[in-house]
């Protein structure tokens, strides 16, 4: 079967599997009381990661699928920062003892849309209420267009160790179509400034499948990006979900590349990165061989969470800020998405949880299987089931899909071991979906698999 036929067959709308079960299946059954109980029950020695969501930007990029809004006045930003500190206090008090933090990730939106003094104060509050490991990673997402000296000084004071820069594409025509004008020079200068204040690792976010992108164009963008010398690159297929993000309707839909062209663009990006010595990490990440992400992949220690592929193996991820999602051994919990509802809950002394899902034994088994497929491209179903004290026959509802994938040479499967082939790597989300019992149970709509 040729690639065009494979794309037509498998380029279905399936989750990105940054969690399992995925967010569309969360419900109000997990509320503030449930989550507070989960937090209080955490063992004293459990390592913790923190995710802080800042839902503000200077302008809205038309392709964006994040929970964010445009704010230019200082008052909402200052109020948000104050409420975020109050939430930190609330969560820490609920836990009742200072757990050890290994990773902090500031995401958005644009985290440095907050005043620099506010970012420093928030990071200081985290250190007051949690016990930080000596080598804790402090990561922040950065918009090169708006990183000013105040924000840079704040990141230096915060001890930022890793920064992720949004790039998307350097072609002016593409940038015009997606509403994000950003020069190569500004991006390169931003990376250099971040390195000067101690950010040891620089990641660039690249996107294919945008309006007016071509295979030749994305090759040129990647070649330019490599001049910046990133330690990592994340390469995402643009998720066209206008039913969720109305601003996407403002882009020229007739200029979007079709499935075959998207696939060619993805392969072109990979060819350039691998050709320059970057290791392939999972589905859509790349890293220098000496980078910790590449080493984790090589040692089969790679993990997957809401930020994508990661070295973070903490079993507890606490989400802070509007719309953020936490992952605990007991399940997932998401904060109120709207800033007013989140703020009101925190100010009233309530953990601002809106929804979530408690994990069953079946969920944990399938989450493990799916994570192995997404991270290592292989899984021993019998061994994994045994680790969960489960009968491997419980996973055999995936057999028809696996047989079909094997016939198309996307996987090798002997009834026990599933191994994704090189031909099947771009379709790994479809392989993972074979084990997803929620996928056909609801009406959730997802992005294209390739």
| Cα Rg | 21 Å
The CATH class of the largest domain is identified as Alpha Beta
Low-confidence stretches: none
CATH homologous superfamily title of the largest domain = tm_1862 like domain
Distance between the termini: 17 Å
Strand content: 15-25%
Main sheet: strand order: 9-10-8-7-6-5-4-1-13
Q: SS-based structural class?
A: alpha/beta
Shape: globular
The count of DSSP E runs of length 2 or more, i.e. the number of strands, is 19
Largest sheet: 9 strands, mixed
Mean pLDDT: 95
Please tell me about this protein's structure.
This protein folds into 2 domains: 22-358, tm_1862 like domain (pyruvate-formate lyase- activating enzyme, Alpha-Beta Horseshoe); 361-433, Arc Repressor Mutant, subunit A. It is built from 15 helices and 19 strands. The chain is 37% helix and 21% strand. The strands form 5 sheets. It has a 9-stranded mixed sheet with strand order 9-10-8-7-6-5-4-1-13, with helices on both faces. A 3-stranded antiparallel sheet has the order 14-15-16, covered by helices on one side. Strands 17-19-18 form a 3-stranded antiparallel sheet. Helix 3 (74-95) runs parallel beside helix 4, helix 4 runs parallel beside helix 5 and helix 8 (215-227) packs parallel to helix 9. Strand 4 (100-108), helix 4 and strand 5 form a beta-alpha-beta unit. The chain has 450 residues and is an alpha/beta fold.
């Amino acid at each position: 079967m040729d690639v065009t036929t494979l794309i037509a067959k498998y380029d279905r709308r399936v989750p990105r599997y940054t969690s399992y079960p995925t967010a569309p299946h969360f419900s109000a059954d997990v509320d503030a009381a449930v989550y507070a109980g989960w937090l209080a029950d955490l063992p004293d020695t459990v390592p913790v990661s923190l995710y802080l969501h800042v839902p503000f930007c200077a302008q809205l990029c038309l392709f964006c699928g994040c929970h964010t809004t445009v704010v230019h006045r200082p008052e909402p930003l200052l109020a948000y920062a104050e409420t975020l500190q109050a939430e930190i206090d609330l969560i820490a008090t609920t836990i009742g003892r200072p757990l050890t933090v290994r990773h902090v990730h500031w995401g958005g939106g644009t985290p440095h849309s907050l005043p620099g003094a506010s970012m420093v104060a928030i990071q200081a509050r985290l250190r007051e209420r949690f016990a930080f490991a000596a080598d804790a990673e402090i990561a922040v997402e950065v918009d090169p267009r708006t990183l000013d000296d105040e924000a840079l000084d704040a990141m230096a004071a915060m001890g930022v160790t890793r920064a992720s820069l949004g790039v998307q594409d350097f072609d002016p025509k593409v940038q015009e179509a997606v509403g994000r004008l950003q020069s190569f020079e500004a991006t390169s200068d931003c990376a250099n400034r971040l390195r000067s204040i101690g950010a040891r690792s620089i990641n660039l976010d690249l996107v294919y499948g945008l309006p007016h992108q071509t295979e030749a164009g994305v090759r040129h963008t990647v070649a330019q990006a490599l001049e910046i010398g990133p330690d990592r690159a994340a390469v995402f297929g643009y998720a066209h979900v206008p039913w969720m993000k109305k601003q996407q309707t403002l882009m020229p839909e007739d200029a979007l590349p079709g499935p075959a062209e998207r696939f060619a663009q993805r392969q072109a990006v990979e060819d350039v990165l691998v050709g320059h010595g970057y290791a392939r990490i999972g589905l859509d990440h790349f890293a220098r061989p000496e980078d910790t992400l590449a080493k984790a992949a090589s040692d089969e220690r790679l993990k997957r969470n809401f930020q994508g592929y990661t070295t973070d193996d903490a079993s507890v991820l606490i989400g802070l800020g509007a719309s953020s999602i936490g992952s605990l051994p007991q399940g997932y919990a998401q904060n109120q998405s709207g800033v007013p509802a989140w703020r009101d809950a925190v100010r009233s002394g309530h953990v601002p949880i809106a929804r979530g899902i408690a994990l069953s034994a079946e969920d944990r088994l399938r989450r493990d299987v799916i994570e192995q497929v997404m991270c290592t491209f292989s899984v021993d179903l019998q061994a994994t089931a045994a680790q969960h004290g489960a009968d491997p026959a419980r996973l055999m509802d995936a057999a028809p899909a696996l047989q079909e994938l094997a016939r198309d040479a996307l996987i090798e499967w002997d009834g026990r071991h599933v191994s994704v082939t090189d031909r099947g790597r771009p379709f790994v989300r479809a392989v993972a979906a074979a084990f997803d019992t929620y996928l056909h149970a609801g009406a959730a709509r997802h992005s294209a698999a390739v």
